Amino acid sequence: MGVHSNSDSHTFKFPNISLCDSHGHEHHTVVSDLDGTLLIGRSSFPYFALVAFEVGGILRLLFLLLLSPIAGILYYFISESAGIQVLIFATFAGIRVSEIESVARAVLPKFYSSDLHPDTWRVFSACRRKCVLTANPRIMVEPFLKEYLGADVVTGTEIDEFRGRATGFVSVPGILVGNNKAFALKEVFGDDFRPEIGIGDRKTDIPFMKLCKESYMVPKESGIQPVGPDKLLKPIVFHDGRLVQKPGPVRALLIILWIPVGFILACLRMAAGALLPMSIVYYAFRALGVSVTIRGSPPPPAEKSAGRTGVLFVCSHRTLLDPIFLSTALGRPIPAVTYSLSRLSEIISPIKTVRLSRDRVRDADMIKKLLQEGDLVICPEGTTCREPFLLRFSALFAELTDEIVPVAMSNRMSMFHGTTARGWKGMDPFYFFMNPRPGYEVTFLKKLPAGLTCGGGGQSGQEVANYIQRMIAATVSYECTGFTRKDKYRALAGNDGSVAAAKAAKSKVMGC
User: Are residues 178 and 202 in contact, defined by beta-carbon separation less than 8 angstroms?
Assistant: First the structure.
């Protein structure tokens, strides 16, 4: 149950948004509603559910789901504002405002962007000045609307807070619906200014639409294809959160019911990977519903008697399980150097893991010693990326050996993401294996020719790193970027990703 329109567009006298010409509005102002207008979906429940799960876990999501029928009844039989107030209370009561802001910045934009209405966006993006009026809490929607849609003004419901925590209630003038939207519009532009275009989708949008020179209604239609991500002002390279799909009421219920079962299944899968010989882990994973697809020709183990160093497997980085699935594909454990790993992940890892210190000289000496002992795996991006992008490859690995085998990694998750920037990384492998049928694809590329290495070909370390980045990107149809680990953590967590910064941020949130 969510927030829906209770009237069809044909009862209004405003023309259909499809009739609005997007040309000639370069100097105009547009004012738009959000749910059912800028967004195809007319229900805000999924976005409240995302916030509830990310800040309060399964119990908060359950609380929201139990109260959502009450919200629906109030919406249809009392008022729209009463229904939304229940959703806000169930989601926000007692939650730190800083946590809500973090979810709004790092999690919600990905889901909002996948539901953008093509006709509304066509008109909205054509105007010079853009304003959004919404009944949703401003704190939830403002980061997406301003950063990715170019909104100049976002006016929404203001949540009430006490000592840094949301009370679950809203501030004056209350839920922004009906006449409240009209009053808000006048506060933004003044009594004498009339925006050129107003766009809404329901009866409660009429008051602000009447204040515009021309207004259009977005009808409720099925089968509308959302705007592609390439149409946004900038691509969404980084995003956080555990849920893969937008949780409507039914999916939210399935998630709640699945988590206890999925956690037990995840423990079984992880036990199989950790306790069984690596030569049979591939078959154990298949028996437990984890698919491992191997492409290309894996190289044989390094021969120590030949006096050669081991092979350095250079992988794209999708989750912290990349080295484990590489070992599974090879049928033998391959040690891995890591940039950061939780203590729990180190304890349960079936392969040897060695932490990098981020001191270039020390790390170089350590990697050389490990290669003298045998094969090694490294993920030079330094952090994971969920979207089809590759982050910049660090050049250090290329300067240490010419025995390099690039490996393209891709994975499949249907319910939970196995990575996080804001949460506890110790749960990453559990969440990955909690997916009903997770999968990994490991593609071994040809060993780097001597002429393209630093030692044999005289290439610089960064030239080699960039070449391998392009090779892997072409294999999995990803896009190369110059973004780094610091860029990711600044975007998602508000720090540079270092342990010290993460602890400082946590202390700040805890009030220490």
Answer: no
Strands 376-378 and 439-444: unpaired
Q: Is the overall model pTM greater than 0.85, yes or no?
A: yes
CA 44 centroid distance within chain: 18
Mean pLDDT value of segment 194-212:
93
Distance of CA 453 to the CA centre of its chain: 35
Q: Which residue in this structure is represented by tokens 């966006």?
A: 121
Same domain, 315 and 383: yes
3-state helix, strand, coil in the chain (%, to 5): 45, 15, 40
Same domain, 80 and 188: yes
- Distance CA(356)–CA(368), nearest Å, equals 13
What's the total number of domains in the chain? 2
Q: How many CB atoms lie within 10 A of CB 6?
A: 12
Q: Residue 347 sits in which domain range?
A: 249-510
Say if residue 346 is in the same domain as residue 215.
Answer: no
Alpha-carbon span 431 to 386, nearest angstrom? 14
Judgement on whether residues 284 and 175 belong to the same structural domain of the protein: no
Q: pLDDT (tens digit, 9 = 90+) per residue, 273-322? A: 999 999 999 999 999 999 999 999 988 876 665 567 889 999 999 999 99
174 SS3 class: coil
